Fold these 2 entries.
Entry 1:
Amino acid sequence: MSSIHLPVRIEFGLDSSITIGSEFRSLKCSKVMVVSDKGVINAGLLDKILKSLADAKVESVLYDNVVPDPDVKCVEQARDFYISERCDGILAVGGGSSIDTAKAAGALITNSEPIVSMGGMGKVKNPLPPLIAIPTTCGTGSEVTNVTVVTDEYHFKVPIISPYLIPKVAVLDPNLLTSLPPSLVAATGMDALTHAIEALTNKLENWYADMCAIKAIEMIGKAIRPAAAGGNVKALSEMLYASTLAGISFTLSRLGLVHAMSHPISGFAGVPHGVANAILLPYVMSFNLVGNPEGYALVAKALGIVGRSGVLETAKAGVEEVIGLNHQLGIPKSFKDVGVKENLFPQMITDTFKSGNVAINPRRVSEKDVEIIYQASFAGDSPLLFIE
Ligand SMILES: [Fe+2]
């Protein structure tokens, strides 16, 4: 059985973010906590947004202590700030860390349980305060998803999943991506590609998720190179819209082994989420291919692969395409290159299996399999090792 439940309005287009004041007015909010980070502020991305709020007579206060991979302390601080400032709405402006912090803080404001106790599905009992999300990267999808991720004291990234976590409105303004460094376009874009590929190929069947995923893969395959080359607003727009589509696909159909394995890498070794996913993606595609060759052939076709003989050859060409994409985008080749230490593997393997995404991975996976993938991606071995 499948279901489609997307209670989020999406506003998109150049300068769509400068209508934010009237959005909060219509939600009857008078004082908004803006959750963001120093990078967004220093790039001047909040200027027009704050003016729009002021013009609409909506007061705003800024919580800018968002950290990458937000932890319990960060989200509790945001909650305390909201309460002490007597806010009645939340605006997240930033990448996945800002939006996830805003969501988790929102859950803490209206629920008495500690945030990690709300980990898993359906444990957020009460609706959040009105929340609007404006992404400034092209990866997270968090602006439309039902999930937030908070890192606990043991470096485990706790997913909290609830329909209450879906923002009221997602505002997609490509102008906010024009100052994004190429390396971040590449890393966050590869995160979005991973979302779409995992949602399309995992064991959960949802035609609507598949449709969104295929379109997202097509758009990312065409736009990610010119977007990462810089100065191409059209390509950045396509990446932004595709990342939201990918977010819709995985909120309907969840993910797979890449995310199960990348969360421990970010949690223990601090590797940015998009980079960890990008490095793992071709290894996991190669490993998973026998579990869903038709699905991976669809991925390949969406990436523009044509003329291969048969499903397996087509699927394999899709893996090669992703390997080439990583190379052209300057994604590090191995986890050794980004400072991961081999002595972390036992803990990372244990945490991989705490993820609900392992059970829906298209191929059954053992601890030994995960160890082999971590070792190969650490050393930078050919990702094709499982299919050649
Ligand atoms: Fe992700």
Entry 2:
Amino acid sequence: MSGIYIHIPFCKQACHYCDFHYSTQLKKKKPLLNALQRELEMRKGELPEQLVETLYFGGGTPSLMEAEEIAELISRAKSIYTFPEDPEITLEVNPDDVSQDKARLWRQIGINRLSMGIQSFFEEDLKFMNRAHNATEAREALEWAGEYFDNISLDLIYGYPLLTEEKWMKNLETALSYEIPHISAYALTVEPRTALQSFIEKGKVPPLDEAQAEAHFRILVNTLENEGYVHYEISNFGKPDYFSQNNTAYWIGKPYLGIGPSAHSFYGRRRGWNISNNSKYIKSIEEGKAPVEYEELSDQDRYNEYIMTGLRTIWGVSPDEIEKRFGASYRQYFLNRVAAHLNSGDLILKGDAIVASPSGKFLIDGLASDLFRVG
Ligand code: SF4
């Protein structure tokens, strides 16, 4: 069982906070789409005899592509790899690209899940972020998408100076009013070399406030859990049967192949990452070379990764699984380190796994790093 991620590295404009790989120049679109098709073929040996359960178009902004261009990529992937009858096929879309026609076309070409970058329903917040869409488009996009899709996820951002607790509640209430079965919510972070970082350095935007983000996170968890969403990963909430299969595959360590500039791949003991430059990516493919570098992961790397991703999910971290994957010494090390956090109540035993308690959810990164094995 595995997944394929395809990165579409184009956007209409640069959001102020974003450090993903994308270009606002679309003139290389055609050669890049050709290169994606060739890379799918070139790297087929990396998922030998694997059933590909999920195909995910991320970016960048995949909805900037024509539906036929996405359809060609889907059919290419299906001609090379083995898919079940009804795999999850997700398209990330921005609200300004959604129309009734487009939503219908996406459904017709086999997309069965939309992940929509709403971020906020307030005009001034969208301007602060430099999003390409406005608040009206956010609402219209949800209505049109809802006519053709029941499996929709929306992204929201919290923890920025303009967002009062009242506005955050309002954003959540608006999202809930569309009966969306999956919501991803992320605290805004200041990434190096972004416009946001420069605005904060120049004093044009106040620095982000961790206490504000924590207050928003509490509101988020309480509100969505009360509405029947399962908080199955630290930033992800889904109604039962609507968890993202693609993201869950990452978190539970299933293999995945990443296609396109900057895409990452993972095969248990090996990780790969593609070059983050559109021109160099296309050139490498045209020369018949996969534009990817690999790294072999040590047991320690894999143990640390398991702790980090496991603690972020409702499935937690299992001592038996640690022993099975990494040996008895890792199990013992983990049990020694985890005892203090079980005593403090930040981590709790659930079945045979250790998971974050409601209070521990706010401390995940620190808890995980305390359980890491280093040196
Ligand atoms: S649309 Fe997404 S990928 Fe593009 S700049 Fe904005 S946040 Fe980044």
